[in-house]
Amino acid sequence: MEKYTLHYRNTHFPFLFVGLVFIKGGYGDFEYVVLQDKDESRGYLSFTGVNQARRFSKIFLNENSCQKILFQQKMLITELRDFSLSNGNFLKDNPQGYWLKIKELCFKIGHLYRYCEQPMQAILEEKVLEAAKNQENLTRALSDEDFAREIVFNQQQLNYLERLHDFGKMEYELHIAMEVIFTSIYEFAASVGSKFGYAFDEILIFKVEEIDKLFLGIMPSSLEINERLKGIAYFPLSEKILTGKKYEYWQKKLEPKIDVPEIRGAIAQKGFARGVVKIHLSIIHVQDLPTGCVLVAGMTNPQMLPYLSKVSAIITDEGGLTCHAAIISRELKVPCIVGTKIVTQVLKDGDLVEVDADNGVVRILERA
User: Fold this and answer.
1) Which domain covers residue 275, as residue numbers?
2) Single residue among 254, 284, 311 that ends a domain in this structure
3) Which residue, 8, 149, 273, 318, is most buried by CB atoms nearer than 10 A?
């Protein structure tokens, strides 16, 4: 049986956006299964998909290719900011043109944001870990270049380390700039839904080509849309959508009940903490956090930055050496464990946990 690995779990991540970025030339180049429950999306890479991402990561060993990608990402950030400033009456005056612009920008996001994702940086991370000799040295080297030189990083290895930093910073900037796309998709869904007689949630579950056809007066099956609202298993490579019992099969296969006393991940910032769990899954929205809580997330989003100084520790499903959670935890000196793959599935709001980020272990002390 093929193994599947969680890549991301986010809310406020509509299926319409999934369809726009999981295309050929974007995330659709890798074998995924996406589970969608209304606006919550979970993406699982198959064993084949993980290997595809690993082969893809060889591009990071080429300096010229990396500089070209970073330049394209900067141009995309400029385009996203310009789109944000130019919105005005664009949607009201020309909804079809507005949709075409969203499609254009999302294609670029799907192509360029993936270079900032941990599965697609696998070989680069391995090169840096090999140079550091162990995880403890690596954690320190990521925030102290002088230390990296002390432990005999050669110039090529220092270049790899710098590349990781560059793409980590770029991920942060891209994520902030991308907020306009999510708000624009929601505004588009409300406006077009009202015009064509569909509920807001229904438009968000449309396939990309169904929106295209909507402007030609071709409506999708209401029965099929209603089935999708109950849950979708989506296979981007084949563009196949499964609902009903077939969706339930994949949901149980990919997300079996997990009962474990502890959870392990990669150390992003060492330290020790004990606290009550607070889960945050939104890709763009924020929420206030109780002082001293243990933040559990698919991945922290940059919009949460003002609240992160209040937490005693951070644990994430996804992420690598230079993900947002890792960078911020090192700046704030907050214990952090990333890449657990299961933490949002295992823990619930109110659980009492012990975070041993010296050893990359989360222990469950008491259930809520």
Assistant:
1) 262-366
2) 254
3) 318
